[in-house]
Amino acid sequence: MHLQQRINAFVKLGDFLRQFSNEVIEKNNKVEHNNLFFDGFKHQLKLAEEHNGWFTQENIRFALNGWAESLTETTINTWLKPYTINVTKSKKVAIIMAGNIPLVGFHDFLSVLISGHRVLVKQSSNDKHLLPYLSKYLEYVEPNFKGKITFTEDKLEGFDIVIATGSNNTARYFEYYFKDKPSIIRNNRNSVAVLTGDETPEDLRNLSEDIFRYYGLGCRNVSKLFVPKNYNFDAFFEAIYHWNPIINKAKYANNYDYNKAVYLMSEFDMLENGFFMIKEDESYASPIATLFYEYYNSPKELKEKLNSDKEQIQCIVSKGFIENEIAFGATQKPKLWDYADSVDSVEFLLAT
Predict the structure, then answer these.
(1) Closest listed residue to residue 62, CA positions, set 19, 104, 22
(2) Which of 94, 141, 233, 341 would be a feasible disulfide site paired with 120, CB 3.0-4.6 Å?
(3) Which InterPro entries match (predicted)?
(4) Helix (H) or strand (E) holding 121
(5) Which of 181, 184, 180, 210 is nearest to 195 (CA)?
(6) Mean pLDDT of the chain, nearest integer
(7) How distant, in Å, are the alpha carbons of 166, 227, 295 from that of 280?
(8) 110-138 tens-digit pLDDT
(9) Domain boundaries of the chain, sorted by first residue
(10) HEC string of 17-86?
(11) Mean pLDDT of the region 259-284
């Protein structure tokens, strides 16, 4: 199978996903094999939400829209332009996927197949309905993918390379278990935002998307703020208030109530607005419905800290503060070339 055939297949998958990426699902009769797959995928969306209460239809649509925008011929060609993709011997790549947000492992899946390898997928039980169905669609639009995509719930066997994502504890297990295989092992990371006090209301409103999208469960979600001494949080709370309906979601509300009770019983200082809490804390990983913050003395000192802690950080959201920063509101809209942990998985797959 030539590279262009693989690209064409994923572009057609993007066309298929585009039908489901808006609040009103609209069938496009020009999409290949739509009569066979359209209604079935609507059912998979329903199953995904029923199985995992964090996967609301709104958040699933957001994820599908991101992939629909990425899976165009122009975007894929831009992504692949730096590489020479000429795999002469296909290898089997095992992917152990997380399940914190919908289709969170899709980029690894795409990278393996687009580079010319075969994929062996072990999904999280939290996100098991969407990708197998989309894989069947891929096999229909490009029959040469048949036999190159395998899903398993059993022990991984017979693979050459592994890409595994998990918690800090499971990552240590992965590193030991896969020590004899070429691998990319990912563990917990969190994203931070740096505020200077000069942000506009629009900047802070955009930041709220980085905080609340997917209920804050993604590694690209902002879980911590760095703010200057004596920072006034009034503008921040005003800018995020439009997210207040989130408290009507039972799973989120339960976490809010529990964490608030813990903080009150422990007599921790915090600020809250009825659906969200902020707490001064040096940690990077904050619980659901909570954002940690930390004061900084000088930009220079903070840059040094962020650099020394870079292995714990996925994204830095700021405005003209640091190199490779992410714009407010853009953390959950990564491009195909925005690699997790800044590890170029395509380059790794082509070189291994």
Answers:
(1) 22
(2) 94
(3) Ald_DH/histidinol_DH (IPR016161), CoA_reduct_LuxC (IPR008670)
(4) strand 118-122
(5) 210
(6) 96
(7) 27, 10, 8
(8) 999 999 999 999 999 999 999 999 999 99
(9) 3-188, 190-317
(10) HHCCCCCCCCCCCCCCCHHHHHHHHHHHHHHHHHHCCCCCHHHHHHHHHHHHHHCCHHHHHHHHCCCCCC
(11) 95
H helical segments located in 183-318: 201-212, 234-240, 250-265, 299-308
Give domain 190-317's CATH number out of 3.30.410.40, 3.40.50.1110, 3.40.605.10, 3.40.309.10. Answer: 3.40.309.10
Contacts with 341 (C-beta within 8 Å, 6 or more apart), sequence order: 186, 189, 314
Q: Residue 349: what residue type? A: L
- pLDDT tens digits along 31-74: 999 999 999 999 999 999 999 999 999 999 999 999 999 999 99
CATH superfamily of 3-188: Aldehyde Dehydrogenase; Chain A, domain 1 (3.40.605.10)
- C-alpha 54/C-alpha 59 separation (Å) is 8
- Which amino acid belongs to residue 296? Y
Between vectors from CA 221 to CA 48 and to CA 111, what angle results, nearest 5°?
65
| Average pLDDT over every residue of 276-286 | 96
Q: Which secondary-structure segment (H or E) carries 163?
A: strand 161-165
Q: What is the pTM of this model?
A: 0.95
* Amino acid making up residue 148: K
What is the C-alpha separation between 64 and 143, in angstroms, rounded? 23
| Residue 285, pLDDT above cutoff 90 | yes
Identify the helix (H) or strand (E) that includes residue 223.
strand 222-228
Q: Does 1 have pLDDT greater than 90?
A: no
C-alpha–C-alpha distance, residues 14 and 29, integer Å = 14
Share of the chain above pLDDT 70, in %: 100
Partners of 226 in the β-ladder: 194, 294
Question: Is pLDDT above 90 for 88?
Answer: no
